[in-house]
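Notebook entry, structure prediction.
Reason for the run: the old model in the group folder had no record of what sequence produced it. Starting over properly, with the input documented here first.
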Amino acid sequence: MAELKQFRLPDVGEGLTEADILKWLVQPGDKVVVNQTIVEIETAKAAVELPCPYEGVVAGLLVPEGATVDVGTPIISVEVGPDAGSSQPPLAPQGPTSADLVPPRPAEGGSEPGIEGTLAPKDDGGSVLVGYGVKAASTGRRPRKARPVSAVSAPAAAAPAVTAAKRAPAAAKAAAAASPAPVPVATEATDTSGAVASSDSPAPTVLAKPPVRKLAKDLGVDLSGVAGTGPGGSITRDDVQLALGAQDAGAVRLAPVTAVAREERIPIRGVRKHTAEAVAASAFTAPHVTEFLQIDITETMAATARLRSLAEFAEVRVSPLLLVARALMVAVARHPMINSSWDADAQEIVVKHYVNLGIAAATERGLVVPNVKDAHAMSLPGLARALAELAETARAGKATPADLSGGTITITNVGVFGVDAGTPILPPGEAAILAFGQVRDMPWVHQGQLAIRKVTTLALSFDHRIVDGDLGSAVLRDIGAMLEDPLRMIAWS
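New structure, fully documented this time:
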């Protein structure tokens, strides 16, 4: 005998309490096995794929895509057992049906505004998401959405009555008999010239081709007040233009122009919500200080080109960021306090003798800061590969909560956006963040002579509760010295 199981949203780690449903990968009626990926969710830290803990047939999706749900909320029901799927409704054909035209209803007890697709019972005992429908066997594709019900479309307007008639024929017939006479609706007809006539019983006939109608709508011209000079009295483009020109003289009656939306509202959720909360908490908790240093990194650029030619770096992209990261870690070894955090509860400064190097990355989901674990212990080729893998994972939106947690110090490469410098905000729990600006050709005094050199600007923000001005200046000065002369990295390591 089949048993109905509900899968509840699990805690994917790091103490997260909620997640957004990004995309369902299964639909009601699909067969699933244990550990099959069924849904993509987005937490405040990363996008995560959830596996199914049951084997059976999907009975219903309890939460629509786009909804934000708390950990522990049932999100999907699965029929398990030898008779699983026997009570499932037959698969619906592709495309919208009359059931798809039923407008979504709020779930019992209320629902979050704007969420569509509530769980609704069907007469055969199964459940589907209203507004989504049941799709055929494919598990990777959502069914097409139904077209909106139109006030002037007779078949669509009658769809709810058709659905009701299917579910309760007798009641539907009685309701139809008791309902008032139908209100006449506008109809369209086409003459031999291809012009469309729009008319109802009280209004005069207006003949105009669809392109002419669109032109009139865009210009705000009411066609009912325009005399047609085309075949059969149809209205032409020239007629519309003449009517528009006579507008100031009061020769035509203008239809109201629909106002264009001047605002757009985007729900705050997922990474954007987490980032906003984190930077606000950091900015108003840790007293920030930012120092700037402009340096000549011509030698670093030459060293980068030399590294690219070595066999150890043949399969990895080498950029100046690699040497900036190495210089930062050498500076951390020389000044350990810069790699620390403030524990307000214990009233302690926690100095980390390891470096989990964070790299700020702009992605489609928002700003994320994944980090390379134990970057201080890696060789230069190993660090280059780790940075490349980190960037690829972040751009693909596949960074896990573990990748995004536990950072100790961060680099943000604002130079890729063509920016010289900035005042970066500290990631929560870190004492410093280094901004690496764009590299530009600039006039520079080199060995007593004016020359064109490769120049960049470094900006170091730090938590003034932990890092005093002399320590922050020393760290920034050391990083600059190593990038001006990369051999110092070897001498100071």
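Summary: The longest strand covers residues 449-463.
The old model has been moved to the deprecated folder.
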